[in-house]
Design brief:
The protein is an alpha/beta fold. The protein is built from eight helices and six strands; from the N terminus they run βααβαβαβαβαβαα. The mean pLDDT is 89.
């Protein structure tokens, strides 16, 4: 059976989905489960396959600068870390006096490097990238030079995929893109966080 791995740029996946489907709610009220998102992507494939890896990339808040976000983050980190399929990489968020919200630094670079490395290792038959960030363009181009099959995933309102800059490459290289709907977004919520909020 074909083995697949799903790569998630967590912040991009969460925020694009929230802005598309949950804009009437505060951003902290929606939290997606990496495993549920990966399973939703797998369910869109017509070919029978096994989800063999979920690679998660995300910024981590600083305890003293953002204690509430840190508590939620640590609960998620512990819960998601208990899943043997989830391989998480967390990089410190960058805080600046002039910026209201902290900014991720290095997450796209780390995801891109790992995506290429794992594609070239042939551990999986197919890797699926869920990120709308154009910073991943060079990595996508490098993966296409390997023998590992590459697909994309994106939130969709049924007509288009707002906020996703990967479609330029999808069209250019004829990459299959799995469209996840509003129902998928709500089905992928992390229930443990939702019930605690």
């Amino acid at each position: 059976m074909e083995k697949i791995a799903v790569f998630l740029d967590y912040s991009n996946v969460h925020l694009v989905g929230h802005d598309l489907f949950a804009r009437d709610f505060e951003k902290w009220t929606t939290h997606i489960s990496p495993r549920k998102v990966a399973e939703a992507v797998r369910s869109k494939r017509t070919k029978e396959c096994e989800l063999a890896g979920v690679f998660l990339y995300r910024g981590s808040p600083q305890r003293f600068l953002d204690p509430e976000a840190t508590k939620v983050f640590r609960d998620e980190q512990q819960r998601w870390g208990a899943d043997p399929l989830v391989h998480a990489t967390y990089l410190p968020l960058h805080y600046a006096n002039y910026r209201v919200q902290p900014k991720e630094a290095g997450v796209d670079v780390r995801l891109s490097l790992d995506l290429v490395r794992i594609a070239e290792s042939h551990r999986f038959d197919t890797v699926i990238l869920f990120s709308g960030d154009s910073d991943c363009f060079p990595a996508v181009q490098d993966v296409l030079k390997s023998t590992t099959h590459l697909e994309l995933a994106a939130w969709s309102d049924g007509k288009r995929c707002p906020g996703n800059r990967m479609f330029q490459l999808a069209r250019q290289f004829r990459l299959w893109t799995h469209h996840l709907s509003e129902d998928d977004f709500w089905d992928c919520q992390d229930n443990a966080v939702s019930s605690a909020a």
